[in-house]
From TrEMBL:
Entry cofactors: Mg(2+)
Lineage, highest ranks first: Bacteria, Pseudomonadati, Pseudomonadota, Alphaproteobacteria, Caulobacterales
Residues in Nudix hydrolase domain copies: 6-134
Descriptive protein name: 8-oxo-dGTP diphosphatase
EC number: 3.6.1.55
Pfam families xref list: NUDIX_4
Length: 136
């Protein structure tokens, strides 16, 4: 942890479809890191359980419902940005209800694990790519 910087907890997900492709989402104009491709998710609010935050974010951003039991073990990303330190667990999820639709991002893309490295990502997300490639 970097001294003096506030810590921000963001939860993110690798949604994996029946063909083994992973969903990535392009950050929209006007936001920090616009144009980069991230694993969907968002900030955990005070008093909120991380899994509940992820379920809420996926409903808001993608219009899907995920059962907590479908959120599998995760790996942590940790990165010091200029003004905060990001801690970001990545969950794996293969089952959801509803159809994935783009509600908040510039674009969505389903990509094979070995193609993830072709998409520029925020520095916090980048180390997760190798982990996913090995796992999937
Ligand atoms: O919507 P807002 O930008 O306030 O929050 P967010 O995008 O969900 O996450 C807060 C910050 O965490 C972003 O500004 C990024 O710097 C970082 N982040 C990241 O590095 N990778 C992600 N997959 C999501 C967020």
């Amino acid at each position: 942890m970097s001294e003096g910087l506030p810590t921000v907890l963001v939860v993110a997900v690798a949604l994996v479809d029946a063909d083994g492709r992973v969903l990535i989402a392009q950050r929209p104009e006007g936001k920090q890191l616009a144009g980069l491709w991230e694993f969907p998710g968002g900030k955990v609010e005070a008093g909120e359980r991380p899994e509940a935050a992820l379920i809420r974010e996926l409903r808001e951003e993608l219009g899907i419902d995920v059962a907590e039991a479908c959120l599998a073990p995760f790996v942590f990303a940790s990165h010091a940005y200029d003004s905060f330190h990001l801690l970001m667990p990545l969950y794996l999820c293969r089952r959801w209800s509803g159809v994935v639709r783009n509600r908040e991002h510039a674009a969505l893309k389903w990509v094979r694990p070995n193609q993830l490295a072709d998409f520029p990502m925020p520095p916090a997300d980048e180390p997760l790519v190798a982990w996913l490639r090995d796992l999937l």
